[in-house]
Specification:
There is one protein chain. The chain has 161 residues and is an alpha/beta fold. A hairpin with a 2-residue loop joins strand 1 and strand 2. The longest helix has 21 residues. About 8% of the residues have low confidence. The radius of gyration is 18 Å and the shape is globular. It has one domain: Nucleotidyltransferase, domain 5. It is 45% helix and 27% strand.
């Protein structure tokens, strides 16, 4: 009888922990870097229990700063969705980019509208979704890592867990 109670209690605690993790906010930091060799992005997705996923990618195509920022955000949001994250807070150091994604600033480039529309649709997959501006120095780890990604070989992806 004690074994059954113990198993029931263990199962209950596992389910409780899983539910608590669903209610936990995850954090997504994104940044980009551009140089004459290409564009690089770095995303850092942080979840419960000190889980940190980092991904660096170098793009083999020419793009504007905002397009690269959007690509980084889309990659990060898709990763969070695949991990079944329910609450996501995104951070970036470009106030203009954040304002455009939120819709408080209007982009004068029609090519960016499809990106913002895609981000808006992806954000609906979460119970709660926020995107926030951070000062450049607060976004330092993604900033340094995106610069490294921009010097990698084209289409080279690096993921760390």
């Amino acid at each position: 009888m004690g074994v059954m109670k113990s198993k029931f209690l263990t199962d209950f605690l596992i389910k409780l922990q899983a539910k608590r993790e669903q209610l936990t906010w995850w954090s997504l930091s994104i940044d980009r870097s551009s140089n004459k060799r290409g564009n690089g992005i770095r995303i850092i997705l942080e979840g419960p229990n000190d889980l940190i996923l980092e991904q660096a990618t170098r793009f083999n195509f020419s793009a504007s700063t905002n397009q690269v920022e959007c690509e980084a955000l889309i990659v990060g949001v898709q990763l969070a969705h695949e991990l079944e994250v329910k609450k996501l807070r995104c951070y970036n150091d470009s106030q203009l980019f954040i304002g455009q994604v939120k819709g408080s600033y209007q982009s004068k480039y029609p090519s960016l509208h499809k990106y913002f529309h895609m981000v808006k649709n992806l954000s609906k997959q979460f119970d709660e979704f926020e995107i926030n501006h951070v000062q450049g120095e607060e976004n330092n780890s993604t900033n340094v890592l995106s610069k490294l990604a921009s010097t990698n070989k084209p289409n080279h992806h690096t993921t760390l867990i």
